[in-house]
Each structure stands twice: as structure tokens, then as C-alpha cells.
Write a structure and sequence with these properties.
The chain has helices at 2-15, 19-30, 34-62, 68-82, 101-113, 117-129, 132-160, 163-184. The protein is mainly alpha-helical. Helix 2 crosses helix 7, helix 4 (68-82) packs antiparallel against helix 6 and helix 6 packs antiparallel against helix 7.
């Protein structure tokens, strides 16, 4: 349960203000079929984060080095500091809108997550907990917790949430996890 909760909270916090959350806002403005958007995000996240958690688990089992906990926890600290840098809003082309909300959300979310903070966090969580299933479920729930409200509440919600404070809180959580891991390993 610890794996699930930690994965959910860290990704939900890391996702706030992230480019994929801004993508959710953009897609919600373009498409009226909100359940199709959510399903597209869900499928893209399961695939992307499932592969990421597997990679983290594989790497942790492949390297029997006593340095691995230091590397993983150091990376948590680096990701925490990275969270302090706000993402830029990227322009997304309308040319694929003809394929519908589900397919557009699926493809754009999968691509946007490649190399994203939450994907890196998922690899690290997979390496730390060595549980592909619970890390994938947790990070997917975290992704949905951060994006579903944006799809339904949109700009009104984002205007009320102080992004700088949320990024700071997320950074503190990641750095604290890294420091805790360094102290206990």
C-alpha cells in the first residue's frame, strides 16, 4: 500500500502545472466528449507509466550495485529541484482533431509524457519499490487526480491554484523522499 500511496501522491503533485496538465486544458477546450479525453489519458498513462515502472524495476534488478539506492535517491532530489522550473505551454496542432477526442488524447498524452518529469519519477519509483503493478496503478491514479479536474473545471480551477506554491510542495516531497531514502539506505 505504501508503494501505491507514494506513487499516487508524488505524481499527482508533480503533474500540477506540468505540460500534460496544460495539454488537458487545451484538449478540454477543443473537445466536448470529456469521458473520451479521460479514457485517452488513462490508456496513454497506463502504457507509458507501465513501461517506465518496468524499466525502473528492470534497472534495479540488473544492477546489483550497492550504489543503486544512492543513485535512485539522488535522482529523486534532482527531479524535486527540476519541479521548481515551470513548464512552458507548447502549441499543439489542430490537424489531428478529426480523429476524435480519445485518439487525440491517447497519442498526444503518450508523446508528451516521454521524458517528462512524471515519467522520470515513475522510472525512479519502479526502481525504488520494484513493483511494476503498484507503481503503474499509483502513478496512473496520480495522473488522473491531477488532470480530470482540469478537464471538467478548466481555467477556473487553474486560476485558483497557486502554481508556484504547488510546485514548491511537489519539490519538497521529491527532495524529502530522496533524502529519506539516502538516510535509510
Amino acid at each position: 500500500m505504501d508503494t501505491f500511496i507514494t506513487s499516487t501522491v508524488t505524481v499527482a503533485l508533480a503533474e500540477i502545472g506540468d505540460k500534460t496538465q496544460l495539454l488537458s486544458l487545451l484538449l478540454a477546450a477543443r473537445f466536448t466528449n470529456k469521458p473520451a479525453l479521460i479514457l485517452g489519458i488513462l490508456v496513454a498513462t497506463i502504457i507509458n507509466h507501465g513501461l517506465s515502472a518496468w524499466l525502473g524495476d528492470y534497472l534495479s534488478q540488473s544492477f546489483t550495485s550497492s550504489y543503486l539506492p544512492w543513485i535512485v535517491n539522488g535522482c529523486f532530489i534532482v527531479v524535486g529541484l527540476w519541479l521548481l522550473i515551470p513548464d512552458k505551454d507548447e502549441e499543439v496542432s489542430n490537424k489531428y482533431d478529426q480523429y476524435g477526442a480519445f485518439l487525440v488524447a491517447l497519442v498526444l498524452f503518450f508523446i508528451a509524457e516521454i521524458g517528462d518529469k512524471t515519467q522520470i519519477a515513475t522510472v525512479l519509483l519502479g526502481a525504488q519499490y520494484q513493483s511494476v503493478l503498484w507503481v503503474t496503478i499509483g502513478t496512473t491514479v496520480g495522473m488522473l487526480l491531477a488532470n480530470v479536474p482540469v478537464i471538467y473545471a478548466g481555467n477556473a480551477l487553474l486560476k485558483r491554484i497557486p502554481m508556484a506554491k504547488v510546485r514548491m510542495l511537489a519539490a519538497i516531497v521529491f527532495v524529502a523522499l530522496g533524502c529519506y531514502g539516502l538516510v535509510t539506505s
